[in-house]
Amino acid sequence: MSIYAGIDLGTSGLKVALIDDEGRVLASASRSVKVDRPRPGWSQQDPRLWWQETKAIFDSLAEKHPALMKRMTALSISGHMLGSVLLDADDQPTYPSILWNDQRSISQCKVLEDRVPDIGVRTNGAPDPGLTAPKLLWMNEHVPDAFQAAVILILPKDYLRLCLTGERITEASDASGTMLYECGERRWSEELAAAAEWDLQRLPQVVASTDYVGDMRNELRLRWKIEQPVRVAAGAGDNFAGTLGVGAAKPGETVISIGTSGVICAVDSDFHPIPQKAVLTGVHAAPDTYLSMGVVMSATQSLDWLADLTGTSVPDLSVSAQHRFETGGIERMPIIRPSLTGVRTPDNRPDSGASFRGLNAGTEKSDIAYAIMEGVAFQFYDCYLAQTGAGVPMSDFFAVGGGSKSDFWVQLIATLLDTPITMPEGGEVSACLGAARLAKCACNPADISSILEEKPKTISVIEGKCEWRDQLLERHRAFRELPF
Q: CB–CB of 77/234 below 8 Å?
């Protein structure tokens, strides 16, 4: 029996799952990675910490599951996208990786739009400080030594692959988020790179997500007592991998990811850029498809914030929010847009903070917890309206990510979207599962379609509540009136 490792580099931590030929998770481990916020609106990490924690996870798995590690055949990586990783000639970072939820390069977005007015329909979306190109302009202006010392730009998960294999490379899903890549034509653009004050010679080769790109370095294989060479697949950005983790590889299949951020990922056969609504559209990791992504910048992060503020666990907040809703109704509850790190879809307001209406002396933390969960659900609904309004197909819906553990949260979303949502087995590690599928593809290139399209077992199907919908839509109208 072959064992495939799926690595998921998340914003706040790393997960690794060991998966068999049938797609079953046989073992997993995780470690946290601290986000550095040296100034308001800044969000960055030292890439070397990612590798340090990856090694620690595999050390742990080798100690606790030696029989599984011994049979590892291939691995691949999913990772948070859009972050800048600039490396010198010795593959050392010249500056911390500026992350997807960093806001420091807002002014540079206008520069890009002025230089390339049609950039939104050529790349994955309208310029936004979360994307890579504005970060490059900011670095050249504010940390020119680090900018000039770099010989190559890669993406976060590509740094881990470099550490594992020694190969500098990227793939199309992650390249799509740089604003240096023509998504419709699937190539780096000299004009876009020049607009970001970068050059093509400092960009890696782009391959397919399923491609075999090298073997794990021998010293690592020996360290973890793996018997045979380990093939490494190119991998994919986290939303792309998470979508494949539930087998969403055909047009219309849609995955709602409720993680630190939230994303509605809809598979499309055509390139449907929607920059005017701040929807991101990239090359999917499944062959001959694209992925349309409506983005909620703060999803579980918003509930985490309330948990830290009140000293209450997230599960307890979620349960109390549901109880408050079911027993007290929502007529007098506050309305909150929990945009702690700005708004992307559909308003493109990275400078926005959270906004609320209706707090009073009788407001309880369970009320706020409910209003945050409702506010996130409203933002998913806004994404859905923006995407379907532009012709993006959406049919079969799945929910994944840590927030999907709350059936109540998923039910709020299902009610607003007026559609059932499938809860798949392994949804909390869907990005690991997707990465493992890509690893399996690297070993079985003739079977790529069947590997990527296979669906996991269904745990449940959550239906919306028709009796909730009118009231939620009324509150959504008030939500849309909140100031930015």
A: no
User: Domain segments of the chain: what residues?
Assistant: 3-238
Hey, is 3 helix, strand or coil? strand
Report the distance separating Cα 243 and Cα 158, nearest Å.
19
| Contact (CB, 8 A) for 133 and 196 | yes
* Cα dihedral 358/360/366/370 (nearest 10): 0
**Which member of 8, 128, 174, 238 is catalytic?**
238
- The CATH code that applies to domain 3-238 is 3.30.420.40
Secondary-structure percent of the chain, ordered helix, strand, coil, rounded to 5: 40, 20, 35
Give the 3-state secondary structure of residue 67. helix
Q: Angle at Cα 261 formed by Cα 271 and Cα 319, nearest 5°?
A: 130
User: What pLDDT digit, counting tens, does each position of 323-369 carry?
Assistant: 999 988 888 899 999 999 889 999 989 888 899 999 998 899 999 99
Whole-prediction pTM value? 0.91
For this structure, is 199 an active site residue? no
> Quick one: CA dihedral 154, 156, 158, 162, positive or negative?
positive
At CA 295, angle to CA 294 and CA 297, rounded to 5?
A: 170
The bridge status of strand 85-87 relative to strand 25-32 is unpaired
For residues 106 and 143, give the distance between their C-alpha atoms in angstroms, rounded to a whole number. Answer: 16
Q: How far apart are CA 353 and CA 350, in angstroms?
A: 8
What percentage of the chain has pLDDT greater than the value 70? 100
- Name the strand (E) or helix (H) holding 97: strand 97-98
Contact 275, 294 (CB under 8 A): no
User: What's the farthest any 2 CA atoms get from each other in the chain?
Assistant: 65
In 3-state terms, what secondary structure has residue 285? Answer: coil
Average pLDDT over residues 18-28: 93
- CB-based contacts of 85, cutoff 8 Å, min separation 6: 47, 93, 97, 153, 154, 155, 156, 158, 159
Distance CA(163)–CA(166), nearest Å, equals 6
Asked if 416 and 378 count as a contact pair (C-beta separation under 8 A), the reply is yes
Alpha-helix residue ranges (DSSP H) falling in 285-364 = 300-310, 314-328
Interhelix angle 466-480/407-417, rounded to 10 degrees, is 80
Phi-psi region of 66 (alpha: psi -120 to 50; beta: other; left: phi over 0): alpha
